[in-house]
Amino acid sequence: MPEESTTNEDNNEVPKLQYEWMIRPCNVYDEEYGDCRSIRGRLHQRFVHGSSVDCSQWKRDYDNCVKWEEKKDLKAANELIKSEINRRKERLQAHIENDVWGKRKEPPSDWNRPLPEEMVKQYENTYLHIKNQEMKGEIPPTIDSKCSIM
Amino acid sequence: MNFLDELTKSSEKPKSEPIKKEEPAPKKEKPEGGVAWGYDLYPERRKESESRFANLMHGRDNLEKIRCERNVYKCIKTSPLVKLMMGALKSSGCPMDIRRHIACEECHPSVSGGYDPVLNQIVVCQNMATNEGLVQGVLTHEMIHMFDYCRNDLNFKNIDHLACTEIRAANLAHCSFVSAWMQGDTSFFNFKESHQNCVKSKALKSVLSVRTVSTEEAIEAVERVFPKCYKDLEPIGRRIKRNSNDMYMAYAEGYLYGYDN
């Protein structure tokens, strides 16, 4: 549950919220609301669900977000956080209920099992091999460009 | 059911032209103790002996391979979907190593990519996935299989598991309205909820192309697991509309679920 804990008694200090990181930038809510109500969005909803979905929650979230950003309205922030938690719960619901397969307790042990030697040898001088080493920091990055400076 | 009716109708009359992806190459090997794993869609992996003519064509091979690898690297660096999938895999304890887990190879023209569960590697078909967009599609699709394998006791020999992961991949990485329309799974007359038909038929085709089962068995498996697997949208979280901001928005909310690097 969202809690608030003020770190000190000074009223000018911004109150700290435990789940503040769940509040997204406000324009995201506005964009989602606009996309939900757009013609393309509505067509897609009909295509998938057979009818339009209710977009009003995004609007409420946007209004609460603006109130939090501009006036530090705690009530708005808490409502927003509650909505985010609920959204997360709904999204993960179907994933958790998917019992076609059992969930693992740890990653598969053969995830990084070494490839056959001939394959490793084949990969030695390939583009991906070099880029992989660069990404890991084993060799310094190269400029990947088709231009040459004359 | 609308979907089943169409399929039984088509199996009665022979089609005049073969649909792509249903022309199997002759089986070369039967790995895993004699049980036919599937059709040989990855010839390079089986080390065929080469004719002299094939030797002459190697220069083009290598160019294709380099172009394919470049596209893979570009996708990894810039595509929001691929980055989201890699973040999700990493945070699930299965980090992607782009050399170990991705390979560009020449394959049968009926496929554009695949996932080799024996070696745990994504195969990108350098002769078919020739631009960044196609490579992005392949990588996203196959990474969904990897995500399912990483998080769940996915047994690729279990037809229900296979159907489920293919349904999820078709649901999340394919089946925009236009592609469904071109496949004949939707029209302006039966538009409502026809997304499901597209997902079912794509999943069915995928299942049939990697397992030697009858069409009926495959249809039954797809229908059996469909309700649960269709709703499971992790890790992308939404069905992407083509040419929209959806993939960027999906990437931006990934952090709320722990899918960031």
UniProtKB/TrEMBL annotation, chain A:
Cited PANTHER family: UPF0545 PROTEIN C22ORF39
Family (UniProt): Belongs to the UPF0545 family.
Main location (coarse class): other
Subcellular location: Synaptic cleft
Lineage, highest ranks first: Eukaryota, Metazoa, Ecdysozoa, Arthropoda, Hexapoda
InterPro entries in the record: Pants/Emi1-like
Record-linked Pfam families: PANTS-like
Organism, as annotated: Nicrophorus vespilloides
Entry protein name: Synaptic plasticity regulator PANTS
Gene: LOC108564421
Automatic annotation (TrEMBL), chain B:
Annotated stretches, region: Disordered: 1-36
Biased composition (Basic and acidic residues): 1-32
Domain of life of the organism encoding this protein: Eukaryota
EC number: 3.4.24.-
Gene: LOC108560327
Ubl conjugation listed as a keyword: no
Segments forming a coiled coil: none
UniProt keyword annotations, A-Z: Hydrolase, Metal-binding, Metalloprotease, Protease
Keyword Nucleotide-binding tagged: no
Protein name per Swiss-Prot or TrEMBL: Mitochondrial inner membrane protease ATP23
PANTHER family found in the cross-reference section: MITOCHONDRIAL INNER MEMBRANE PROTEASE, MITOCHONDRIAL INNER MEMBRANE PROTEASE ATP23 HOMOLOG
GO biological process entries: proteolysis
Family label: Belongs to the peptidase M76 family.
Classification via Pfam families: Peptidase_M76
